[in-house]
Amino acid sequence: MTSLKHIPPSCQVAIVGGGPSGLALATELKNLGIDDVVILERQVQAGGIPQHCGHYPFGFWEYKRLLKGPDYAHLLRNKAEDAGVAILTNCHVTNLAPGGHLSLTTPNGSCKMLADRVVLATGVRESSRSQRLIGGQRPQGVLSTGALQSMIYQHGKRPFKHPVILGSELVSFSAILTCRHMGIKPIAMIEEKERVIARSFNALFPKLLGIPLIMGTHNLTIHGRDQVEALSYRDREGKIHQIETDGVIVSGHFRPESALLLNSHLEMDPATGGPKVDQYGRTNDEHVFSTGNLLRSAETSAWCWNEGHKMAHILADNLHSEQTPPPITHSIELEHEALRFVMPQCLSLPPAKNHQRMEHLQIRLNRAVKGLLVLKSGDKILWSGAINSRPERRILIPLDPWIDQPIPGPLSLTIEEKR
């Protein structure tokens, strides 16, 4: 529990969010000699999404250990606390003003904090039923994967016996593991797209368990007055089907947890739903940075941990170096309808010498594409590479060596598609 007397009025680095990225960032900052590091976490305990995931595998890439989610979160917290990081829980950041000024609310009242640097690491959340335009009645028994995990692993409750899982992202398959922990037997997985969103081998898991995986659906409708009784959908041919069920798990379709940004001075990217940043994770406010899943669609905890670790080195350079990067000079325009987003969305050129930065542009697609991915500045091709990918696949364009070349004008990203 946090009290006002434990909240300092100022600090070098304030990290908003105590998930894998925020905890890794804070720990590494302390290891790099940044003494005054504070994590502001709104939950009762830091650890992020993994602390609700009572299954493997977590921690292998970071620590060469196979851990369940809660054990992984516990390890991250311990490492941060052992390094001397101040973790303030039950602490809500209600306002972000220019120059690193934060307004905080705790169970004991409100206060202000001034940070030399603020790093936003608030992560993502699953899209709600209404955001996914799922129709029908509003009975009990409709849960996100996160709510299901919390109910089962933290409270030991079984909300239903035979649910339907909506979605085929990696989190959708993890929902099966969560259900099995409490003896819940899903009766179907339903996906609106024609192919599984996660890697195709994941589709073998429900098949081995006898769970039908139904693709190419639309017009999903939930039925039931008090408790879910059925879910109906239309198939590819337009025929209506109805599945009797007592629950619906609405999984995936992650969105950045960006509520703090909405009334702030920071520029947001409509494509990602998170802040616009440059190759240093820096926003349009030179005091405010961002890392982890707030930047784009959900990545694995290991990927977010690595981003936080990398951000620590970027931030240490920013705090210690006499030569800071120039202001943002170039935006990257998307010039093909299949391109969903690029992150970072902007570049600060020329890049600061001997200053850590992101290693890649990260890209996602709206649909399956095969062809040539091309990054240009005017008519000059800076980088090109073959692409054969689908939505929610990680696509990376290395920043080296082209970012150190003279770049005369606006940047654009396009696809020369093979039909």
Report on this model:
Strands 1, 2, 3, 4, 5, 6 and 18 form a 7-stranded mixed β-sheet that branches. A 5-stranded parallel β-sheet has the order 9-16-10-11-12. Strands 21-19-26-23-24 form a 5-stranded mixed β-sheet, with no helix packed on it. A hairpin with a 2-residue loop joins strand 23 (369-377) and strand 24. The chain starts with 9 loop residues before the first strand and ends with a strand. It is 20% helix and 30% strand. Helix 1 packs parallel to helix 8 (301-320) and helix 4 packs parallel to helix 5. With 419 residues, the protein is an alpha/beta fold. It is globular. The protein has 3 domains: 1-126 and 254-320, FAD/NAD(P)-binding domain; 128-252, FAD/NAD(P)-binding domain (3-Layer(bba) Sandwich); 325-419, no CATH class.
